[in-house]
Amino acid sequence: MSIGLDSAAFTTRVISDTYEAEAAGYTDSPSFMAGGRDLFAEPGRAPGIACRGYRTSDGLAGLPGRDQLRRALLGASASND
């Protein structure tokens, strides 16, 4: 299912140490960012390079659910309009 981001550019970035994580506002791996903002930010969470867990309808997982990611991307796209 398309969410209207077919022409959007996506990049990946490797964060190799805590200093880079702090500079980028990166809170563990994997992180999903749009417009420099963490789509799943948790208030008070410190930058880091550890494995990240996501709260999903099936419990804690290594990735957000597809629908969670879709909603987060749509929200970020709408806030940039």
Helix-strand layout with pairing:
Elements: H1 18-24, E1 27-29, E2 33-34, E3 37-38, E4 48-51, E5 54-56, E6 59-61, H2 66-79
Parallel strand pairs: 1-4
Antiparallel strand pairs: 2-3, 5-6
Structural notes for this entry:
By secondary structure, the protein is of the alpha+beta class. The chain has helices at about 20-25, 65-80, and strands spanning about 25-30, 35, 35-40, 50, 55, 60. The strands form three sheets. The chain has a two-stranded parallel ribbon. It is globular, with a radius of gyration of 13 Å. The two termini are about 20 Å apart. The model has no long low-confidence stretch (mean pLDDT about 85).
The gist of it:
With 81 residues, this protein is an alpha+beta fold. The chain has helices at 18-24, 66-79, and strands at residues 27-29, 33-34, 37-38, 48-51, 54-56, 59-61. It has 2 helices and 6 strands; from the N terminus they run αββββββα.
What's the overall geometry?
Answer: globular
Count of individual helical segments: 2
Strand content: 15-25%
Rg for CA atoms = 13 Å
The topology string of helices and strands comes to HEEEEEEH
Please mark out the parts with pLDDT under 50 across 5 or more consecutive residues, or reply none.
none
Overall average residue pLDDT: 87
Helix/strand/pairing category: alpha+beta
Describe this protein with a few key phrases.
two-stranded antiparallel sheet, two-stranded parallel sheet, alpha+beta, 81 residues
